[in-house]
Amino acid sequence: MILNIKTNSRTDMVDITHKIAKAVDESGINRGLVHIYSMHTTAAITINENADPDVKKDIANALDKLIPWEDNYYHTEGNSAAHLKTSLIGTSEIIPIENNKLILGTWQGIFLCEFDGPRNRKVYITFLQS
Fold it and tell me: Which of 20, 53, 100, 126 shows the greatest Cβ crowding within 10 Å of its Cβ?
């Protein structure tokens, strides 16, 4: 299954938890795993707090300090920082499913992390039933 996600800025964290939960529900899988994969080299997938929007700002600010947009990069497209940030965060997450529901902590949400937007992104979802 492929989800299409629109991002709105150069750096964006889009909460896709509800879309993933809906996909799990529609899958009919009672117990298993869901694998969420970004099909891009400049967009990542992560799990983090989705209650306070300042967490997303803190993550973006910390990544900008760690990996600045302007540096002595060899890649000439102007998005080297986006590639590095994606490699650091990672392109996928695996989440358990129990009773046809995602097993997430109280404050956890699933995010598509955009580092080279705004763009239309594809997130590939696969299921493993146990």
Answer: 20
Judging by beta carbons within 10 Å of its beta carbon (0-12, 13-18, 19+), is residue 104 exposed, middle or buried?
middle
The string of pLDDT tens digits covering residues 81-90 is: 999 999 999 9
Residue matched to tokens 């990069």 = 73
Could you report the per-residue pLDDT of 59-96, keeping only the tens digit for each? 999 999 999 999 999 999 999 999 999 999 999 999 99
Q: What are the extents of the domains in the chain? A: 2-129
Whether the CB-CB separation of 105 and 47 falls below 8 Å is answered with no
CATH 3.40.309.10 is right for the domain spanning 2-129 = no
Tell me the β-bridge partners of 126.
Answer: 35
- Show the DSSP H helices in 1-130 as ranges: 17-27, 54-66, 80-89
Please give the Cα distance from 1 to 66 (Å, whole number). Answer: 34
Q: Please, what is the Cα angle at 13 between 116 and 69, to 5 degrees?
A: 35
- The angle that helices 54-66 and 80-89 make with each other, rounded to 10 degrees, is 120
Q: How far apart are CA 120 and CA 32, in angstroms?
A: 29
